[in-house]
Design brief:
The complex is a heterodimer.
Chain A (H helix, E strand, L loop, with lengths): L22 E2 L3 H5 L3 E6 L11 E7 L2 E8 L7 H5 L4 H4 L3 H4 L4 H16 L5 H29 L3 H22 L8 E2 L2 E2 L7 H23 L3 H7 L7 H6 L5 H4 L7 H4 L20 H25 L24 H12 L7 E9 L2 E9 L7 E5 L1 H7 L1 H4 L7 H8 L4 H5 L1
Antiparallel strand pairs in A: 1-4, 2-3, 3-4, 5-6, 7-8, 8-9
Helix pairs in contact in A: 5-6, 6-7, 6-13, 6-17, 7-8, 8-13
Chain B lengths: L8 E7 L2 E6 L4 H10 L5 E9 L39 E8 L10 E8 L5 E2 L8 H12 L3 E2 L36
Parallel strand pairs in B: 2-5, 6-7
Antiparallel strand pairs in B: 1-2, 3-4, 4-5
The chains are: A alpha+beta, B alpha/beta.
Chain lengths: ~425, ~180
């Protein structure tokens, strides 16, 4: 199932504009005809997934000039994190990409753990993997619902958000909140896995496999959907690599690349899953990659439930992890540790690390610099959505204005992550 | 593997299982093209500037304060157990490279790094990896690294007429400066 037979010719050309790779400039000869119309698409437009602004120059219905303008959601997360203790800063990454919050939280926590040199216990690792895959399904559902809605498939939105709500219910069961859970922390998890989660999650995983088939029944072979998505927004493998694309966009251009396989971080090497790759590099193939990934993520969730080891869910290191609550009443040492951790936080050894993971949108990297103190010296996120928008000028070259919406949707960008 | 053949090679460091190759700022583009063409690093994942202003200031264990009291907004004011390694210049710019081969089993990574003072131009690597375009604009916008030879070096996240570079250590964290009556 992983690799489908190519149905149309594989696109191999190079269309990156020169000299500026991210701006499509109008041919001066064409501009002299005076028929060029400049249109602002966004920043407040229901189909821009937030506050993306595209300055589009049209010749009739054809896009001949394009420039993406970003920054409307810049909130200075990275600067703020430099002024928080490591412990408190964990709440920030999940708000950067508010759709794949668990994965963003994970990359920051993994980077801290790399500097600290600690390894969380197996149960914490498996639970992290399970939640990250649930979060991947969640993110893809939001993507599918909104992107299909933009192309007129209204009912998809309701179906996708029904399953999304079921996932949020699972998050609420485990962490107490539906989004922005702050459930991962340096050393493991914030709390033990509650009883009853296993059954609820198993029930969800069983229905989810059927649900993906239902979504596909509505869209995959539907004439309007095919017409709107096939052969639209072409990106060749060479262009995708040159423009730094990752995740579903890269895999839909025929590049077999998934950091869960190439650079395993959680126990991803102990579970069985396929990496969907499609060769045509159009909107339709990006859609197929997303659909297959939801199936594969469900498989990983099922295997994680089977393989979930018993044991502790956080490391036993009182210099990093809060002592159990009951010890505060009986142990002076624990009270001191609690006080120091809450006020000053733990200290992270000096150094710089770059930790990449495969988020639902692609390579999400976290670059950390520590001076040995209790706050990060520098935090930088390599945001896959930011990089995905660099490809807009290449993808929308000579596209029709109606296809802009399909193409923007297929890049699966979250503006919070683009602007940080 | 030694990286001494990289043009402008200064030093290499191994830490936390990651390799960092430092090159001369002026020869960055040469080094980038060498690493892309000879070593196969065809994918630029990220460009990150870092400001080390205040890194060398003496910081001791315990709370650090000046005569007016403790200033918790100064970086490092919470006291360090040891003084961090000195840095050669104020800014570093790190290029996180990846060798991306379809279907490969491994993901070799390398950090290419240059050091510069405020205002030193850093050559653009857009001609080596087109994806560097927005990353370098962000480096200019957020940290004020003047990228030399960039085709479109404008602010990207802040407005075009913004003053200052928000991620610098000497840029305040939000809000208007407040003056108290007893400050003078």
């Amino acid at each position: 199932m992983a690799v489908a037979e190519p149905k149309s010719a594989i696109y191999e050309g190079t269309r990156v504009p020169a000299p500026i790779p991210t701006v499509l400039q109008v041919d001066p000869a064409l501009r002299e005809t005076g028929d060029i119309l400049e249109v602002n698409f966004g920043p407040n437009h229901p189909s821009t997934h937030g506050v993306l602004r595209l300055v589009v120059e049209l010749n009739g219905e054809t896009v001949v000039g394009l420039q993406a303008v970003i920054g409307y959601l810049h909130t200075g997360f990275e600067k703020n994190m430099e002024h928080k203790t490591w412990w408190k800063a964990i709440t920030y990454p999940e708000r950067i990409d508010y759709v794949s919050f668990q994965n963003n939280e994970l990359v920051f926590v993994l980077a801290i753990e790399k500097l600290l040199g600690i390894e969380p216990p197996p149960k914490a690792q498996w639970m992290r993997m399970l939640l990250c895959e649930l979060n991947r399904i969640h993110s893809h559902l939001v993507w599918l619902g909104t992107s299909a809605l933009e192309l007129g498939a209204m009912s998809m939105f309701w179906y996708c958000f029904r399953e999304r709500d079921a996932i949020l219910d699972l998050f609420e069961l485990v962490t107490g909140v539906r989004m922005h859970t702050r459930y991962f922390q340096a050393g493991g998890l914030a709390e033990d896995v509650p009883t009853g989660f296993d059954d609820e999650c198993r029930a969800f995983a069983d229905t989810m496999q059927k649900r993906v088939d239902e979504y596909e029944a509505l869209l995959t072979g539907q004439a309007i959907w095919l017409e709107r998505t096939r052969g639209v927004g072409l990106l060749s493998a060479a262009d995708a690599i040159a423009l730094g694309q990752s995740g579903p966009v890269l895999r839909a251009s025929g590049v077999d690349w998934d950091l869960r396989r190439q650079q395993p971080y959680l126990p991803y090497d102990e579970v069985d899953f396929d990496v969907p790759v499609y060769p045509n590099g159009d909107v339709y193939d990006r859609y197929r990659v997303h659909m297959d990934e939801m199936r594969q993520s469900t498989r990983i969730v099922q295997q994680a439930l089977e393989g979930m080891p018993e044991g502790p869910w956080i490391v036993d290191d009182r210099k990093i992890v809060l002592p159990p609550r009951h010890e505060l009443h009986t142990s002076m040492e624990s009270l001191i540790h609690h006080f120091k951790l809450v006020t000053e936080g733990y200290r992270v050894p000096e150094g710089e690390v770059y930790v990449p993971i495969e988020s639902p949108r692609g390579e999400l990297g976290c670059y950390l610099v520590s001076d040995g103190g209790s706050r990060p010296w520098r935090v930088k996120f390599r945001a896959p959505s930011f990089v995905a928008l660099e490809a807009t000028a290449t993808l929308m070259r000579d596209a029709l204005v109606a296809d802009l919406i399909a193409i923007v949707g297929s890049l699966d960008t979250v503006m919070g992550e683009v602007d940080r | 593997m030694s990286w001494e053949a990289v043009p402008g090679y200064v030093e290499e460091r191994e830490a936390y299982g990651e390799t960092t190759v430092v090159v001369e700022r002026e020869r960055l583009l040469e080094a980038a093209l060498h690493l892309r063409d000879e070593a196969g690093f065809n994918f630029l994942a990220d460009v990150t500037p870092t400001d080390y202003l205040g890194w060398d200031r003496p910081r001791v264990a315990g709370y650090w304060a000046d005569p007016r009291g403790r200033d918790i907004n100064t970086p490092g004011s919470w006291g360090l157990q040891s003084q961090p390694e000195p840095r050669p210049r104020r800014f570093s710019v790190s290029y996180h490279l990846l060798r991306l081969e379809s279907g490969a089993d491994t993901a070799p990574r390398l950090r290419l790094q240059v050091w510069c003072e405020d205002g030193d131009p850093v050559p653009s690597v857009v001609s080596a990896w087109p994806t560097a375009d927005w990353h370098e604009r962000e480096a200019w916008d957020m940290m004020g690294i003047p990228v030399e030879g960039h085709p479109n070096l404008r602010r990207i996240l802040m407005e075009d007429d913004w003053e200052g570079h928000p991620l610098r250590k000497d840029y305040p964290l939000g809000g208007e400066p407040v003056r108290f009556s007893d400050a003078e």
